[in-house]
Design brief:
Length: 249
């Protein structure tokens, strides 16, 4: 990390920065030793800086990938991400000028934050269902670490519910959708379901938001009737309707 990755990410070359972040992301994926080493070498603030300040798409994309690999299933890394204004940095991606590249970055950020919020629910479910005493103790500690992060609260404070709602509104006005947009519906929809208790309050009374998932549900129902590939998207938008529609509550 110190000999190759950090010098690459710190270089003046966008190509070397992108390659350094890509190597780090690949090495840290499902590898706790590299995740810990990344934490010890303060790579999280370095990667965040390049998302915020560096406008070369390949650098931004690979830095998000590296952060994703370092933070997944690792609450200590997630804490460092939060402490270094990572959530604010991610939210800033949604304020950048609209472009093909920006759409890809928004998808990467949404997928990462979706994974981190769903991860919290998975940890609680594992603890609830664990029967082995030692494993149950470990699961309880994991839940405690996640609870101490207050990740969902911090996301809400930084406008995440409204950003997700706005993305669905934009997508519902852009029909028909391409593959990347389908992925954005999945990531945004699953995030809204994982954060429904908090987001319901923030999005209450937003008629444009309600209309967006009705429109998407009808759209995916039509697609599903011709192609079973769209079953997941139809089920997801139906669940969003059932969860957020004030009439159905």
């Amino acid at each position: 990390i110190q000999l190759i990755i950090i010098p690459c990410i710190n270089s003046n070359s966008s190509f070397l920065k992108a390659q350094g972040a890509l190597i780090l992301g690949s090495a840290a994926s499902n590898n706790q030793k590299v995740q810990i080493a990344s934490l010890e070498n303060d790579l999280i603030p370095l990667l965040l800086k390049h998302i915020d300040n560096e406008f070369t798409f390949s650098v931004q994309k690979n830095c998000i990938f590296a952060l994703s690999s370092i933070t997944r299933r690792f609450p200590l890394a997630q804490k460092q991400l939060i402490d270094n204004n990572g959530i604010q940095t991610f939210m800033s991606v949604f304020k950048m000028p609209v472009s093909e590249f920006n759409t890809k970055l928004k998808l990467k950020v949404t997928q990462l934050l979706e994974d981190l919020t769903v991860e919290i629910e998975d940890a609680k479910l594992t603890f609830k269902e664990e029967t082995n005493k030692q494993l149950s103790t470990e699961a309880a500690e994991r839940v405690r670490q996640y609870d101490n992060l207050h990740l969902k609260d911090k996301l809400v404070e930084n406008g995440w519910c409204n950003i997700l709602g706005n993305e669905l509104i934009i997508l519902s006005n852009r029909l028909p959708l391409d593959e990347e947009n389908h992925e954005m519906v999945v990531a945004s929809g699953k995030s809204l379901l994982a954060m429904q208790k908090l987001c319901k309050v923030k999005l209450q009374g937003n008629k444009e938001f309600y209309q967006s998932f009705y429109t998407l549900e009808v759209y995916y129902k039509q697609l599903f009737q011709n192609d079973v590939f769209f079953d997941e998207l139809y089920q997801l938008t139906t669940e969003l309707t059932n969860t957020y529609d004030p009439v159905l509550e």
